[in-house]
User: What shape does this take?
Amino acid sequence: MPGLLLDLDGVFYEGDHAIAGAAEAVTWCRAQGIPHLFLTNTTSRPRRALVPKLARMGIDAEAAGILAPPFAAALWLRQHGAGRCALFVASASLEEFAGLPVMDPEYNDHPAAVVIGDLGQEWSFERLNEAFRLLMSEPRPQLIALGLTRYWRAADGLQLDAGPFVKALEYASGVDAIVMGKPAAAFFEMALAVLGTSAADTWMIGDDIRTDIAAAQHAGIHGLLVRTGKFRPQDLELGIVPDGVLPSIAALPAWWRENVHE
Assistant: This one.
């Protein structure tokens, strides 16, 4: 049975507004018994906070059916016994790291890992420099990035995501980031393990030609691009060729019937 990895922001909603036909597409997916998992690079809130937002849009989901970078990073830190970590993540996402040893907020001890998420307006030179100084301390901590997304569409326009800040820290410190969100192959591998499907039998649907489509294809997963969210016509001129292009998620049922053979 083919499976679906479904990006959220830009595919099912833009800001707080549902994309027309999004709820019906999920209802169809469930009726067909198609295994599916929601993926998001959102690092500013825990997975459980997305459940009521989706419910308001008529989409029934559970936290366990959502894979997000904070949860993936916390799981990685537990599996690798990384030790005390310094968290540069939104306060709402701190609960995903519950039970892990966290460095003192006053930076009085040495971290084994520095975790970088999307702080939005909370980023400042001072905050970024704090992360840099920690990465330069000896022994060098690991740099954990909650995704490398360049930007996203906020209610007032495009806004920088965590990627540019991670790249700045990599460049300044010389420490390579371990990436826990899209477009990292490890994130897609984790998604496949949760979904229980093979890469060749799985389709990723997203609005980001690089982070969703190219990254999924690099992991052996088919990529379906939607013309909503951050999509721009010039995306199709970058040399990245999606396995399909949909006007929106609402077109998925018809496209699936015509193109996917179980």
Notes: The CA atoms of residues 223 and 243 lie 5 Å apart.
